[in-house]
Design brief:
Elements (H helix, E strand, L loop, with lengths): L1 E12 L2 E13 L4 E5 L6 H8 L7 E6 L2 E2 L5 H11 E4 L11 H11 L4 H14 L15 H13 L5 E5 L7 H16 L3 E5 L3 H4 L4 E6 L2 E7 L1
Parallel strand pairs: 3-8, 3-9, 6-7, 7-8
Antiparallel strand pairs: 1-2, 1-4, 4-5, 9-10
Helix pairs in contact: 3-4, 3-5
């Protein structure tokens, strides 16, 4: 599903170059559950953003579903992202002007789904995440944990082929966190490919494989 070869990400400030990712070679099979771990500043979130086509590598090749992403125009990358990828952000990225219902509905509008089908899918998400009572509230009226639940519901509502999750349970209590991880595992067992970034050894064990990043390099890889 995913192949990366020689991916570098470099930020240049004047004559100073800062390497965030270095020579990343990575393959992810369809239906895999991959965990990315490493200390702060290792390049985990940058890697996830490049995988999700929200950022571009400085050099290297990235192939997603047989499409050479590094050769595509921005508009083409955006289309792939909208149609195949769900992203759970560490900092929520909810749209402040939209209520909970509208935030969850947004990916379905991008897919031009019929109104009745959209309504059914959003209602199902509200029920599944136990946030029916919050549907008319705006992000500023929610706790951090509730905003994260809405963010995850928005990521999975369109049934993407790939879910990218950046610390998906970081703002949830242990009970909510366990529920989210079990839901991601269930989605994975039904065919969704998942790549998560986490600091938690416990959450990492929901996956099939862990890659450890250090200073932008893949330091080691382990199968579970």
């Amino acid at each position: 599903m995913i192949t990366m070869k020689g991916i570098d990400k470099v930020y240049s400030t004047g004559s100073i170059k800062t390497f965030v990712l270095r020579n990343i070679d990575l393959e992810v099979k369809k239906g895999e559950f991959l965990t990315v771990m490493g200390p702060s500043g290792a390049g985990k979130s940058t890697l996830l953003h490049i995988l999700g086509m929200l950022d571009e590598p400085t050099s290297g090749e990235y192939t997603f579903l047989d499409q050479k992403v590094h050769e595509l125009k921005e508009k083409q990358r955006t289309e792939i992202h909208k149609n195949f990828i769900g992203f759970v952000f560490q900092s929520y990225h909810l749209i402040d002007e939209l209520n909970v219902w509208e935030n969850i509905e947004t990916p379905l509008l991008y897919k031009k789904m019929k109104g009745s089908e959209r309504k059914a899918k959003v209602a199902d998400m509200l029920d599944r995440f136990n946030i029916v009572g919050k549907k008319n509230l705006f992000p500023s009226q929610l706790s951090g944990g509730q905003q994260q639940l809405v963010g995850i519901a928005r990521a999975v509502v369109a049934e993407p082929k790939l879910i990218l999750a950046d610390e998906p349970t970081g703002n949830l209590n242990s009970k909510e966190g366990k529920k989210i991880m079990e839901m991601l595992k269930d989605l994975n067992e039904n065919g969704t490919t998942i790549i998560q970034v986490t600091h938690s050894e416990e959450k990492a064990e929901y996956g099939d494989r862990i890659i450890h990043l250090l200073d932008g390099w893949i330091e080691k890889e382990e199968k579970l």
